[in-house]
Write a structure and sequence with these properties.
This protein is mainly beta. It is built from no helices and eleven strands. The protein has a seven-stranded antiparallel beta sheet, with no helix packed on it. A two-stranded antiparallel ribbon has the order 5-8. The protein starts with a strand and ends with a strand.
Length: 174
């Protein structure tokens, strides 16, 4: 994806799949995240890159999937009868199944994943200029139902997620 400016500059983005941990397993999760952003300055002929890494200190993903969408199924049966067929030998049965979500499918302001740690590295013309580490609150995950009937809407607690907890700034030599 690229944006061309009338001044000759450009900005391009590189995307990758969301990754998150659910029930102890790392999974690819719907949606995209920005992996890299590049800005080109035609006056200085310089490319400024920002590389984003979404990982913990141990290099595992910092993405958290707080809930897996749940559905309930409804089945309808329809028996069609011919009023002239007294023996009902020619009857036809139709089944219809529908799946309905038991909660809103869009969580966390549109993303199903919350990242608790993001590394943002600044690179100028191929040379690292240092990086920043951002740490965020994951929020509560126990405020959501577990397939208990009646299916009550899961609570969305946006005030408890994505809060910036800490920013650390490092130069080229750490």
């Amino acid at each position: 994806e690229k944006i061309n400016y009338p001044t000759g500059g450009k900005t391009s983005f590189t995307y990758e799949l969301n990754q998150g941990v659910s029930e102890g397993i790392t999974k690819s999760i719907g949606g995209l995240r920005v992996q890299k952003k590049e800005d080109y300055d035609p006056i200085t002929n310089t490319t400024y890159s920002t590389v984003y890494t979404y990982s913990n200190v141990d290099n595992t993903t910092s993405g958290k999937l707080l809930t897996i969408p749940s559905y309930t199924a409804y089945w309808n049966t329809m028996l069609l009868r011919d009023p002239n067929d007294f023996m009902q030998l020619g009857r036809e049965i139709y089944y219809h199944e529908s799946l309905n979500p038991t909660q809103t499918l869009s969580y966390f302001s549109g993303s199903p994943v919350i990242y608790t740690r993001v590394r943002e590295e600044q690179i100028v013309s191929g040379v690292s200029n240092g990086y920043k580490i951002y740490e965020y609150a994951a929020g509560l995950s126990d405020q959501m139902h577990d397939a208990i009937y009646p299916f009550v809407q899961k609570q969305d607690l946006p005030w408890d997620r994505g809060l910036l907890l800490k920013t650390s700034v490092y130069n080229q030599t750490n």
